[in-house]
Design brief:
Length: 430
């Protein structure tokens, strides 16, 4: 598999290089040179397979010879150890529940696959994973790499801006997992990560590698659950599927659009955001005007400069699709709360991110269409807010309950690169 840098098309790399490097020159994103397509019949055949076998085929269509099929199959099997069920919410709407993995969020799929691929290609070379998280990526990355030889993981997150339980889930591991509470917002964390990747000396010393949604291996893994969703929908509805994606950095939506480009029949995608609505405003007005990031109930989507957006533009350009075909919607915290109550009345307990996707889907779905919204996290990951909104207690799933009583092991740092640099050298270079 060959990929090119979106900021400099002359920079071309193999899949292994793209995974190791994360970003290209000038912080450019990598994008696949070839966009494979399955025929209608091949799609039908794929949809008959089980999740792991189907995912092996999808991933090998992209990755090709570079990782031998048998080894890739083994890696996919190790990564995808939990299901992605479609749960019916009402007549014409269902949720694709992506939160049945070890950290109860969709980022387990990408995080675990990426860890497997890195282990495959790194060999004996020690690497440092440096990533910024607005919540769930951190947990998924930490758990996916925890205990792996030759890998040190450093995770930055905005202090006080992620849920206390989320913090417990990944800041209590220790060992090769180092967590840093940064005095700033998520965009500040992301800027620090970018700065580190621009520092050649540091990059060499640490064999730096990023593991957030910009890594191509994560995106490829996420394509697989869109197929799994359609496979569970009754055959007669498969041509009428509309998928609503709660979006922050827009990795999940990028993966969905890549699934469509492979030939998966999706009638329409909806980009659903909270009031951090840079993309919906861009789609409506045509100009890119990020504003100051605002803290909301759906904190994993509090992103005003979504870093996967250039890939979406490139995919539309390559496929000759019009951006006007991408639907959008913005949901306030107030409406998120009333929507959570509305869903609970229908017997479905959700959480703020998925509720945003449901709201826009419900408002825009037309007669005869079948709607899916992505359930990106388990409701208990947002226990405090969900309990307050619904006025009822939520039991903790075991993975969280076990961690809730452990002490936080995070370091606190200002949003300052020199301080972070010293910290990185001290923690990871042995
Ligand atoms: C990360 C995350 C999102 C946003 O996904 P992107 O790929 O960044 O758009 C939505 N919901 C939850 C719960 C998340 O953790």
């Amino acid at each position: 598999m060959q990929l090119y840098n979106l900021k400099d098309n002359h920079e071309q790399v193999s899949f292994s290089q793209a995974v190791k490097q994360g970003l290209g020159k000038q912080q450019g994103l990598f994008f696949p040179q070839d966009l494979p397509e399955f025929t209608h019949n091949e799609i039908d055949e794929l949809l008959k397979l089980d999740f792991v076998s189907r995912s092996q085929r999808i991933l090998s269509a992209f990755i090709g010879e570079e990782i031998p099929a048998e080894q890739l199959a083994e890696r996919v099997k190790n990564a995808f150890t939990f299901p992605a069920p479609v749960s019916v919410v009402e007549n014409d709407i269902a949720s694709l529940e992506l939160y049945h993995g070890p950290t109860l969020a969709f980022k387990d799929f990408g995080g675990r696959f990426m860890a497997q691929i890195l282990a495959q290609i790194a060999g004996d070379q020690p690497v440092t994973i440096l990533t910024a998280t607005s919540g769930d990526t951190g947990a998924a990355v930490a758990h996916a790499f925890y205990g792996l030889d030759n890998v040190q993981v450093v995770i930055l997150y905005p202090e006080g801006k992620i849920s206390p339980l989320q913090e417990k889930l990944f800041c209590t591991l220790g060992g090769n997992i180092h967590t840093v509470a940064v005095q700033g917002d998520f965009d500040a964390c992301q800027a620090l990560v970018k700065h580190a990747f621009d520092d050649e000396e540091l990059k060499q010393a640490l064999h730096l590698n990023s593991a957030n949604s910009i890594n191509i291996s994560r995106l490829l893994a996420q394509i697989c659950y869109y197929f799994e969703a359609v496979a569970q929908i009754p055959v007669e509805k498969r041509e009428q599927v509309v998928i609503s994606v709660p979006s922050g950095n827009f990795g999940d939506l990028t993966a969905g659009l890549l699934a469509k480009s492979l030939g998966l029949p999706i009638k329409r995608f909806i980009a659903a955001t909270n009031v951090n609505d840079t993309v919906p405003r861009y789609l409506a007005e045509g100009s890119w005007q990020p504003k100051q990031t605002i803290a909301t109930l759906s904190n994993a989507m509090d992103v005003s400069q979504p870093n996967n957006w250039p890939r979406i533009e490139e995919l539309f350009r390559r496929k000759g699709w019009a951006l006007s075909e991408l639907a959008k919607g913005v949901v306030s915290d107030e409406t998120t709360q009333s929507t959570l109550r509305e869903l609970a009345e229908k017997g479905y307990i959700s959480e703020p991110h998925a509720a945003i996707a449901y709201r826009v889907l419900r408002d825009q779905l037309q007669d005869g269409e079948y709607g899916l919204f992505l359930g990106t996290a388990h409701p208990a990951k947002f226990k405090e807010s969900v309990e307050a909104i619904l006025g009822q207690p939520l039991p903790l799933p075991q993975a969280l309950a076990e961690r809730a009583d452990l002490a936080l092991l995070s370091h606190q740092l200002p949003a300052d690169f020199a301080t972070l640099r010293a910290f990185l050298l001290e923690k990871t270079v042995k």
